[in-house]
Amino acid sequence: MAKQVKLTATRRSAVGRSAVRKLKAGGSIPAVIYGGKTEPQALQVGRRDISNILSHASGENVLIELEIEGEGSRTALLQEVQHSPLGGDILHVDFHAISMDQMIEADVPIEPVGIPEGVKTFGGLLEQNIRSLAIECLPKDLPDVITVDVSHLNIADSIHVRDLPLPDGVTTRVQPDLTALSVVAPTVEAEPTVAAEAPAAPEVITAKKEEPEAPAGGAKEAKK
After folding, report:
1. Which runs of consecutive H residues, i.e. helices, occur in the chain?
2. Which residues contact 80 (CB under 8 A, 6 or more apart)?
3. Equal CATH topology for 4-98 and 105-184
4. Would the pLDDT of 197 be above 50?
5. What is the residue extent of each domain of the chain?
6. CATH tag, 4-98
7. Pairing of strands 104-113, 146-149
């Protein structure tokens, strides 16, 4: 299940590019928390703190116990982290406030485990049609990942959504008949066919016409 980690944040009043530059120069990252029954709040969190949380996260969904200075704590999901396209520095963080006794929705990655029999023995290919699954659960039941044992799959075998081993308390509204994983036969490339060579045209040998021999002396004698 997703671990709940603690993070300290403070209210942020200054906005705009210059304020954000000063914020980042001081080692902080702009953030916002929304959801619940309160208006969105502009916050700031430590760059080192949020980087440490991300580096130890085992999945995409991270539960945060957000301690806002002077306001107490709020439970939130780390909803989105914006990175710089150059260098990958963290630019902004979004938190989604949740209640521990209310159902939440999240996308959880599906992770196949093992080598399918059809791949190991017959050279087949494992195809993953669904990378993540939309689920519903209480925050305490939120899984980091849904692991699926695929070692028993042979050629033409499939695992559908209804076959996925969802943890207790976790449900999905995704159509149960959709194929999540399958093993397909290896593709065999047809050998290129060699075009039949056209028969060579028969060689026609023509007899060379013999030229008349010239008279001896090389000149015609005059009549007398």
Report:
1. 17-25, 47-56, 117-120
2. 93, 94
3. no
4. yes
5. 4-98, 105-184
6. 2.40.240.10
7. parallel
- Burial-class residue 62 by CB neighbours within 10 Å (0-12, 13-18, 19+): buried
105-184: in CATH 1.10.530.10? no
pLDDT single digits (tens) 141-162: 999 899 999 999 999 999 999 9
Tokens 């047809």 -> residue:
190
Predicted TM-score (pTM) of the model is: 0.72
What residue has token string 């196949």? 112
- Among 59, 45, 50, 142, smallest CA distance to 100 is for 142
Query: d(Cα 155, Cα 119) in Å, to the nearest integer?
Result: 8
Tell me which amino acid residue 68 is.
Answer: I
Structure tokens at 223: 């009549």
Taking residue 155's Cβ as centre, other Cβ atoms within 10 Å add up to 18
Write out the two tokens for 85: 């396209």
Asked whether the beta carbons of 32 and 94 are under 8 A apart, the reply is yes
Pick the closest to residue 77 from 46, 49, 99 (CA basis): 99
